[in-house]
Q: What sequence folds into this?
């Protein structure tokens, strides 16, 4: 019904946080997406957050397309056909709080795993570099 | 069916991202992440639907399956249109700029 609105909201927040983090990184280091730390390349937090933003924006856009396909999104106010009646609005809010929230949580968890793997790879690269010295 | 098609699209774009440097420079990773995002979201949707329908979830009517497959392919095409649009706007190899400002 409107479950895609929850990940869309998260996407707006992560994009804003990513932009702030990028500005701070640029003021701290040189204007680079990847900074050099003792010879090994580390991916910045803003780049990692960008992965989450891309998953959320992309997924939400494709889900929004599905909702248009099913006639659940309309080009006139209130834009969501379920919001036209009180009963429909109640069902829509219930779906947003269950399916929508779990969508946002699952995508964020998947991103968390990606970040953990990436951090582990960076650490092992650091260790290899130290062993070579 | 829509979930399955989205998962295959995510897998194919990820394999292309891994194998091709040229495609990486064209930001295929962004398309792969978009398909993975959509796949995870539809997976949640499928879990909730399964909780409601139980075994009936795996035996959909033929008409529903065809409609879902049609939607799945349309979603994949929509994702690719967004990606190609972004490439043409960003124009990393200056192909569009060269074509537009080519001296006759």
A:
């Amino acid at each position: 019904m409107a479950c895609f609105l929850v990940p869309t909201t998260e996407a707006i927040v992560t994009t804003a946080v990513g932009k702030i983090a990028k500005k701070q990184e640029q003021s701290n280091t040189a204007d680079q997406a990847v900074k050099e730390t003792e010879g090994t390349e580390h991916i910045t937090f803003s780049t990692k957050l960008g992965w989450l933003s891309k998953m959320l924006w992309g997924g939400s856009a494709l889900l929004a397309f599905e909702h248009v396909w099913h006639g659940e999104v309309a080009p006139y106010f209130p834009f969501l056909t379920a919001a036209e009646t009180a009963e429909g609005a109640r069902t829509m809010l219930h779906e947003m709080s269950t399916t929508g929230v779990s969508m946002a949580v699952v995508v964020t968890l998947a991103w968390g795993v990606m970040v953990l793997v990436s951090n582990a790879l960076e650490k092992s690269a650091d260790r290899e570099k130290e062993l070579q010295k | 069916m829509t979930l399955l098609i989205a998962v295959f699209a995510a897998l194919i774009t990820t394999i292309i991202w891994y194998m091709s440097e040229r495609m990486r420079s064209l930001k295929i990773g962004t398309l792969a992440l978009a398909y993975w995002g959509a796949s995870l979201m539809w997976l949640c949707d499928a879990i909730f639907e399964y909780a409601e329908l139980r075994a009936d979830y795996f035996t959909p009517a033929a008409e529903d399956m065809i409609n879902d497959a049609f939607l799945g392919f349309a979603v994949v095409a929509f994702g690719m249109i967004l990606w190609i649009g972004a490439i043409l706007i960003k124009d990393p190899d200056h192909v569009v700029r060269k074509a537009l400002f080519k001296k006759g």
